Amino acid sequence: MTRLPSALAALAILAASPCAAQSGDLTGTWAHAGTQSELVIRSSIQQRGYSMPGDFSVGGSMGPGSATNMVISTTPTPTMVRREMALIIQADGRFSWISEKSYAEGSSCRIQVRQDKLGRVSAAGSQVTFAIDRGSESATRCNGQTSRSDRSGRSETYRLTRSGNQLRVSDGTVTWTFNRQ
């Protein structure tokens, strides 16, 4: 997670425009850094007598007459996540949002995830929507394998509160506090 300071500097250049940040709106450069519990999709092997959507049955039983099967279950699991984010919102509504997070996978390894999003933001009441024109996500696992996905053409809506030089952005399960830079 050492790339974010240089990414923040690059975004600051992007934000430099004739339009100054106004105290009554969201325009400006915002940053968040912290560790807190977030829901992370994790797989686990479980023995049970039922399956749920998303489970993969590997068969087996616990003995004669048993209806218990072994399944691989993928579920959202509360996990301590270290996250650093840089968010720039320009006066015309364009935004750039870089997010880097990491979390433990086993006792000696951390998963690294980076998201880059560019698009337009709109606010209505206590909700803010980020319409992502261009976006990507990369995740590097403990074995060095990296997966990439396109996040373009999506939108993300959050609850938002603003107090002075702080923005609180919530997806309903976690709240991130951004400070104006």
What does this structure look like?
There is one protein chain. The chain is built from one helix and ten strands; from the N terminus they run αββββββββββ. It has 181 residues and is mainly beta. It folds into two domains: 135 residues, Beta Barrel (Lipocalin); 31 residues, no CATH class. It has an eight-stranded antiparallel beta barrel with strand order 1-3-4-5-6-8-9-10. Strand 8 and strand 9 form a beta hairpin. About 9% of the residues have low confidence.
CATH architecture of the largest domain: Beta Barrel
**Low-confidence parts, pLDDT < 50 over ≥5 residues?**
9-24
What's the structural domain tally?
2
In whole angstroms, the N-to-C terminal distance is: 19 Å
Broad shape: elongated
Helix and strand pattern: HEEEEEEEEEE
The whole-angstrom Rg is 20 Å
- Estimate the helix proportion, in percent: under 10%
Largest sheet: 8 strands, antiparallel, barrel
β-strand number: 10
Counting helices, strands and paired strands, the structural category is mainly beta
- Please state how the strands of the largest beta sheet are arranged side by side: 1-3-4-5-6-8-9-10
Using the coordinates shown, work out and report the CATH topology of the largest domain: Lipocalin
Which CATH top level class of the largest domain fits? Mainly Beta
Strand content: over 45%
| Number of separate helices | 1
Overall pLDDT level: 83
